[in-house]
Amino acid sequence: MRYGQKKIPPAFYLLVFAYLSYCLLFTPNFFVSIPIALFPMIIFRLLWVDGTPNIVFWGMMMQWLPITVHLFYCNIVQITLMEYFSNTVLPTEFINLAVLLSAIGLLFFSLGIFYALRKYKPKEPIAQSADAYSTIKIIRLYAIVSFIVLSSSALIWSLGSFTQYVFYFFYIKWGFFLIAFYFAHKMGKESAKFLYLIIAVEFILGLVSYFASAFLFVVFFSALGLIALRPKLTVKSYFFLLLAGACVFHLSVLWTSIKGDYRGFISQGVVGAQAATTGVGESLSKMQDLLSTVDNAKYNEAIYTTIDRAGCIQLFSATLSYVPAVIPHENGKIYMEAVQHYLVPRFLNPNKAVLDDSKHTNQYTGLSFTTAEGGASFSLGYIADAYIDFGPVYMFPLLFVFGYLFGITYKYLYDKSPNEVWSWILTGPYFLLLNINGADTKKALGPLLIYFLTVAILRKQMIKRVDPLMRK
Asked: Most CB atoms within 10 A, among 29, 153, 162, 313?
């Protein structure tokens, strides 16, 4: 099967019809809900390929969530988006337009990916090449890779300008996780307990770390592994997806409700510290104490905070109010600066600006968010940047090209993989690389370029040396 050949299951049509019927009958957001509801169905048709982890599809769904989360909540409580944001300082007159432009922008980004992948030649299914590999060796290798990444997490920040290259290259760990998960369940179920032990340790260590993403990554890639084991979507699959989504949201809300107090405890009150200074047992005990204090009031407050942190349309709406009413469109300046930022090394451009999302946001919204100097970061997102550069029409061809860049780099690594096992390893991190909605253009482009270039350079030697370690 190739990209664009997957038929949309009837259940998908029924879900979309049921949701839009509900929006028409019970909410004031019917028209703005239409493109949001249709997007998953369209990219499913374009980007789903049976028998694979469908990294690109799920990466785009992660981009879809930030532009939908506020709208979904408003539809549940049956209020408008303007009502939801009525008690904030953010201008809301263009909030529905921000949702519409974001949805269309994501569609053009997805079309760019599809255009790059439309002629890809699928390799033999992973099950056919799996007989040559040892499940226990793959799991052991993943354990080693995970240990290296974890143990060097503090060291890499001392590498200066090389830090980001090592950091993003380490994303490849999640490619090894995918094949370890697949092999443990398909080829050697007796080894699954060993993998579950590793996952449990990673989850706990992530849980007691400073950032929530440390344990959420484990949850996300475990879900991707389970989905890869069930390539055909059934009623049971839809139920699993809804249940998994509800669990992730619940965990996110609980984390949000205790995050401030918990981070203050594990950093020992050191201002600006972003690392745990307490032991695992001590941290877990403190987390348990804090979770026991979460009542209905705290939980409900954390729901609002989680939704606001996950969403990205409110700042785009503020941008629509400010550009071009106060300052003109930039005619490509933002995207060009993003490209130059990574193509021109700092020794050739000593005056290269330090990335400050809040400063960029303040410039194009007229607002006054705390900047990087104050330890805060508020991002507009690459879609809003495309609007600032070229306006509400010509932004879409730019987003198509941006998506094409992601697609062509993905295809290159896929084509250069010797088999499906290595294609999963090398392209698995694109789930993280594609999760960029809400990230400014420089931060959306940088991880992709760094990961792709480092893997493209090291690929041959890595496969030559690592592949024998996984074979029987």
From this structure: 313
pTM: 0.91
Domain assignment of residue 5, yes or no: no
Q: Read off the pLDDT of residues 72-113 as tens digits, 9 standing for 90 and up.
A: 999 999 999 999 998 888 888 999 999 999 999 999 999 999
Q: How many domains does the chain have?
A: 1
Q: Give me the residue label for tokens 């944001």.
A: 85
Beta strands (DSSP E) in 276-335 are none
For residue 436, which of 75, 34, 50, 109 has the smallest C-alpha distance?
109
Rounded-to-integer distance, Cα 174 and Cα 187, Å: 19
- Cα radius of gyration (the chain): 22
Instruction: Tell me if 205 is assigned to some domain.
Output: yes
4 belongs to a structural domain: no
Give the pLDDT mean for 18-46: 96
For 406, residues 6+ apart whose C-beta sits below 8 A from its C-beta are: 109, 112, 113, 116, 430, 433, 434, 448
Domain that holds residue 167: 10-470
Please answer whether residues 428 and 177 qualify as being in contact, where contact means their C-beta atoms are separated by less than 8 angstroms.
yes
- Cβ–Cβ contacts within 10 Å for residue 226, how many? 16
The phi, psi pair for 127, rounded to 5°, reads -65, -30
Strand ranges, E, within 20-95: none
Question: Is 450 a domain residue?
Answer: yes
Residues 6+ positions from 260 with CB-CB distance below 8 Å: none
